[in-house]
Amino acid sequence: MPFVTFYTPTYARPGLLYNCERSVRAQTDQDLQHLVIEDTVGIGIDGMYRQVQEHAGRVRGNYVYMLQDDDVLSDAEVVADFKAFVGRRWPEVV
User: Fold this and answer.
1) Can you tell me the distance from the alpha carbon of 91 to that of 30, in angstroms, rounded to the nearest whole number?
2) Where does the chain have alpha helices with state H?
């Protein structure tokens, strides 16, 4: 089971998605899953949240990080830093 699932809805923005995926692949700690979901609703954030339940069965991570297709992870240590922050407490929500 991966530590974190990055859930990325996308709708017809391949250039932005490429940068997003590249930032996930660059993580030094690869204890992750990256789900790229076609945003069939196509209406941005509202559509993204409407589709989450539809894809919940595909999420394998202990935590879910909503990462838009036009976002990138700020550095290669995001997963490692997140693990260090959580430590052994394993809170339900961070």
Assistant:
1) 21
2) 14-25, 44-55, 78-86
Mean pLDDT (whole number) for 69-93: 90
Residue 23 phi/psi, 5° resolution?
Answer: -70, -30
Using CA atoms, how far apart are residues 80 and 66, in angstroms rounded to an integer? 17
Residues 8-64 pLDDT 10s: 988 888 899 999 999 999 999 999 999 998 876 656 566 666 777 778 889 999 999
Compute, in degrees rounded to 10, the torsion defined by CA atoms 61, 67, 36, 49: 90
Q: Which residue in this structure is represented by tokens 């036009």?
A: 70
Q: What is the DSSP letter of 45?
A: H
**pTM of the full predicted structure?**
0.85
Do the beta carbons of residue 62 and residue 1 sit within 8 Å?
yes
